[in-house]
Amino acid sequence: MPNPRRSISLVAFALSLHATAAMGAPPPLPPEKMNDPTEATNQAVALVQKGDMRQALLYFQHAFSLANKAFDTAANLGVAELALGRYRDAATHLTMAIERIPASQQERKSRLLTRLNEAKAHVATLRIKTNAEYGMIVVDDVPVQPVTSTTPVFVDPGPHFVQLKGPQGDSDPVEIVGEPGKELGLVLRLRLEEQEPEAPAPALEADRDDASFTPAQVATMVGSALTIAAGGVALGLFVRQSTLDGQVDDLRESIATQSGTPNSGCFEPAASLAPTCAQLRNTLNSRNDLVTPSNAMGWSTLGFGVLTGGLLTYVLFFEEPSEPEADELGVSHLTLRPMLNAHFGALHLGGRW
Question: Which one is predicted more confidently, 299 or 126?
Answer without folding.
Answer: 126
